[in-house]
Design a protein that fits this description.
By secondary structure, the chain is of the alpha/beta class. It contains 20 helices and 13 strands. The chain is globular, with a radius of gyration of 29 Å. It binds arginine (ARG).
Length: 587
């Protein structure tokens, strides 16, 4: 199904073609001046240049052709030759009826037959998730919903950090604490015990101590390096111990993502691509892409046009250990083999820009990326009031779990102040508070320009007024309650009727949702969806203020307005769903 705007472009394109002009000039867009027109087409100006003619004269001929289409209540020429368009209300009504019958017509179709691998989350085994990982999770989850809505086949992968030095740091730290554990026996004593010697809490306690020890003591760092090399080389005891770290960590992480309503198709990690590395290295050596540099094996990725230095990508360090760049290269090869993607997106902190530049260039110049486009979707930091990355009061890393409970508490307070959910059972009230808290955090994150940093201000995020997640949830809940009352009173809804300015504005916005989704996809910018859903709520609110709905005595009119409510609710929920925000049944 073509969207309303595409249909208008086709009509205008045919009008230009009918005048012997390029059909591409018939681009129709939403008007910059909604007070004057609904849509505009500026093609006559470009056409005038091409044909060396008077733009108003061309516009006049196009106008005559458009008027014949029967779609428009008004086709007017403004200024030097802009064509302003206003649709007949019946045209809007027909489109809305179609939308009611086929809600998926609100979506774009930009992804048809295309495959996306979406790398987001990216937590590290044994290290607590920090707010950077939270942003990756929220933005990545939104992109996964958005691309799916637009028809892409999406494979999301959490890409656990499970193969670097931190693994060796942990192993060597535990070896010092409990040298007698069977995993440290240099001889292969497999099978090793099924029960993990450490819990998630242990890991989170041990890791920072190990990291600190390695920082201050070169011998400890050396031991950690050695353990990393041996782990990667396949020492059975280390591998067995490492599998425990992995399982314990992944279980904890999955619970945390679950509580945010975020799910991944794949729970792979850096280590999954490790077995591919030897062949990749051999291949790159043979094809002359890899060279030795001070004992390390590197791939040059600098380009003459680089404004600042882009160092070579290190495939293998001199001690034989592979690193973050090597596993990222191997992971690309694996993804290309398994999914043959058109696009791989990496939703990772902007500060890793150089790393991805190196990896992408290496993968592309060596042909390892196949036909997949590779893109780093960077983002800024979430800061505290001091302008530095957000920390706990005690100065530690803010854990996701604590963040969610803080948001839930704040949401509880806001609900109480607003007199919402007051007489509901305690369990329902808690559920609502959690949904509101999460909506507050997600919306605040997504509504900012992705690459900007922003300040964590829970009080502001949880407000029920203004451009917030809770406001939008409330707006949707209010429509739900109108529709519930209508059902209770035995009123049914009918095809929407468009007669007033408020209804027109609401209808027009709903009918341009495919373009909004497509543009958010193209720019990978969730904030466009936030803007759109906020405007939708405002348009609905104006409609609601100016019209009787349940109290309308004309049955047909009441039904038509209820129909508009239903459509608005469906679109609002769809958009909030893309943002990862759920709407409670009531508040
Ligand atoms: N684990 C990494 C980190 O915490 C993020 C991983 C991002 N994905 C990737 N393919 N490199 O910084």
């Amino acid at each position: 199904m073509t969207s309303l705007l595409s249909e208008l472009c086709a009509i205008a394109g045919a009008a230009f073609a009918g005048e012997g002009l390029p059909a591409e000039l018939g681009q129709v867009q939403l008007s910059d001046r909604p007070d004057l027109a609904q849509f505009q087409c500026n093609g006559a100006l470009a056409a005038a240049k091409l044909a060396r003619a008077n733009p108003r004269a061309i516009a006049e001929r196009i106008r005559a052709r458009l008027a014949e289409s029967g779609m428009f209540a008004e086709v007017a020429i403004a200024g030097p030759g802009f064509i302003n368009l206003r649709l007949k209300d019946e045209a809007l009504e027909a489109r809305l009826q179609d939308l009611a019958a086929q809600p998926e017509h609100a979506l774009a179709e930009s992804g048809a037959r295309k495959t996306l691998v979406l790398d987001f989350g990216g937590p590290n085994v044994a290290k607590p998730m920090h707010v950077g990982h939270l942003r990756s999770a929220i933005i990545g989850d939104c992109l996964q919903h958005l691309f799916r809505a637009n028809g892409w086949k999406v494979i999301s992968d959490v890409h656990l950090g499970d193969w670097g030095l931190q693994m060796g740091q942990l192993i060597s730290e535990i070896a010092i604490r409990n040298p007698d554990l069977p995993w440290f026996d240099p001889a292969d004593r497999s099978p090793y015990p099924d029960k993990s010697p450490v819990t998630m809490d242990d890991l989170e306690r041990i890791y920072p101590e190990a990291a600190a020890a390695c920082k201050s003591d070169p011998a400890r760092l050396e031991a950690a390096r050695q353990a990393t090399v041996e782990l990667q080389a396949g020492r059975p005891g280390y591998r067995a111990l490492w599998r425990h770290f992995l399982r314990v960590s992944a279980e904890g992480l999955e619970r945390e993502y679950d509580s945010l309503g975020i799910h991944f198709d794949e729970w792979k990690g850096e280590s999954d691509a490790d077995p591919l590395i030897p062949d990749i290295i051999e291949d790159l050596k043979q094809r002359g892409f890899a060279r030795m540099d001070e004992g390390a094996l590197v791939v040059d990725v600098a380009e003459p046009s680089d404004a600042s230095e882009v160092p070579p990508l290190i495939l293998m360090k001199s001690d034989g250990a592979v690193n973050y760049a090597s596993t990222d290269i191997a992971t690309i090869v694996q993804r290309v083999r398994e999914h043959d993607p058109d696009l791989i997106l990496y939703v990772v902190d902007q500060r890793q820009h150089l790393h991805f530049l190196q990896v992408f260039r290496a993968a592309q110049k060596t042909g390892l990326a196949g036909h997949a486009a590779l893109e780093h979707i960077g983002f800024g930091t979430l800061n505290g009031n001091d302008g530095k990355p957000f920390k706990t009061r005690a100065g530690g890393v803010m854990k996701l779990y604590d963040l969610i409970s803080m948001a839930t508490d704040e949401a509880k307070q806001r609900l109480a102040e607003a007199g919402l959910a007051a007489d509901y059972p305690e369990s329902e009230r808690s559920q609502i508070a959690q949904a509101v808290g999460i909506a507050a955090i997600k919306f605040a994150d997504l509504s900012n320009n992705r690459v900007s940093s922003y300040v964590f201000d829970l009080e502001c995020f949880t407000k029920f007024e203004g451009k917030t997640g809770p406001y939008l949830q409330y707006a949707a809940v209010r429509i739900k309650s109108i529709l519930r009352k209508a059902r209770e009173e035995g009123h049914s809804s009918g095809p929407p009727v468009i007669r007033s300015e408020e209804e027109r504005a609401l209808a027009l916005q709903m009918l341009t949702m495919p373009e909004a989704l497509e543009s958010a996809e193209g720019k990978r910018t969730p904030n466009l969806i936030c803007d759109f859903v906020f405007r939708l709520a405002q348009n609905f609110s104006r409609f609601y203020t100016e019209h009787h709905i349940l109290s309308e005595s004309d049955e047909a009119l009441r039904g038509a307005r209820l129909g508009l409510c239903e459509l608005t609710l469906a679109e609002t929920e769809r958009l909030l769903g893309i943002l990862g925000i759920t709407v409670p049944e009531r508040m």
